[in-house]
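Re: the 175-residue chain
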Amino acid sequence: MLMRTTRTNIVVFAAVTLLLAAGCGGGTAAQSTGEVARTTLLATTTSISQDMSQSSAATASARSVAEAAASASARQSSEQEVARSAAEAARVAAEQAAQAAAEQAAAESAPAAGSGGSGCTIKGNINSKGERIYHVDGKSPSDDDTVVDESAGERWFCSEAEAQAAGWRAPKNAR
């Protein structure tokens, strides 16, 4: 009788340990504890069932504990799969956010179209008389027709003040 009580206590302890491990979210420690408890529980439940075959109440109790352990094991596996799926979704979202941020940073640092690669948009042009004239988009009527030829000494400016400081003037017909 003492041996049966000890085995019953082991079954209860293993079942409680397994249920606690299942509720821990499936971490490595919980998995290890759960596996040991599951193995102990199954071995002890089998032994109790064999020893107590005359007592149908004890056998039913052992079966209930085994069913609870199986249910906890299934719940633990399901929770682990949910955690793996959530981690994978978070990883994919982080990669997509990093890619979007990199693309935005590249777009922001790219020079403006037609700026000669400098990112500046004010065109410094030398006319046929040798006059140095700068053209600002929207202020100079000939801005759209002006092409900067850097090999001829023409250049790009980032501000009107910069163009003026370099000795260039606004066009006479500027708005």
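The chain has a mean pLDDT of 73.
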